[in-house]
Amino acid sequence: MDIETLQRDVETVSAYYAERHDIVRTDDWFMLKLNEEVGELTQAFLARSGQSRDKGRSPDELDGDFRAELADVLAHALLLAERFDVDLSAEVERKWLVWKPSR
């Protein structure tokens, strides 16, 4: 799946979820939700790496928590890009891929 399709699909799911739970997705909401998810990813990372309490979770569960939170961060970054009409493929190419070593 390409990033543009993923971005649209995540937007569809988020809009549906917001409608079901009466959430108003303002510009601030998009930014704050991304920030919240980064915090949850940080918590999952710390637990997975033994730097905080594991809350009784097994190593496999901690690894799953980390993967799930990483997916949440990506999804919310995609939502923010969709909200502000950012072509992420073009921006990654412009900002990152210009440094890709040619072989």
Q: Can you describe what's shown?
A:
- There is one protein chain.
- The chain has helices spanning 3-20, 27-48, 59-83, 88-95.
- The longest helix has 25 residues, at 59-83.
- Helices cover 71% and strands 0% of the residues.
- It starts with a helix and ends in an 8-residue tail after the last helix.
- Helix 1 (3-20) crosses helix 3 and helix 2 runs antiparallel to helix 3.
- By secondary structure, the protein is mainly α.
- The chain has one domain (3-99): MazG-like (Helix Hairpins), CATH 1.10.287.1080.
- It has four helices and no strands.
Write the layout of secondary structure elements.
Layout: H1 3-20, H2 27-48, H3 59-83, H4 88-95
Helix pairs in contact: 1-3, 2-3
Notable traits:
71% helix; Helix Hairpins; 103 residues; 0% strand; mainly alpha; 4 helices
Overall mean confidence score, pLDDT = 96
Q: Please state the second-level CATH architecture.
A: Orthogonal Bundle
Question: Which regions have little confidence, pLDDT < 50, spanning 5+ residues?
Answer: none
Shape designation: globular
Question: What is the domain tally?
Answer: 1
Annotated CATH topology: Helix Hairpins
- As a percent range, the share of helical residues equals over 70%
Our measurement of the CA-to-CA distance between the termini, rounded to an integer number of angstroms, reads: 26 Å
Give the ordered list of helices and strands: HHHH
C-alpha-based Rg, rounded: 16 Å
Instruction: List how many beta strands DSSP finds.
Output: 0
Task: Summarize the biggest pleated sheet.
Answer: none
Q: What is the strand content? A: under 5%
CATH first level: Mainly Alpha
| CATH homologous superfamily annotation | MazG-like
Number of helices: 4
Provide the structure class: mainly alpha
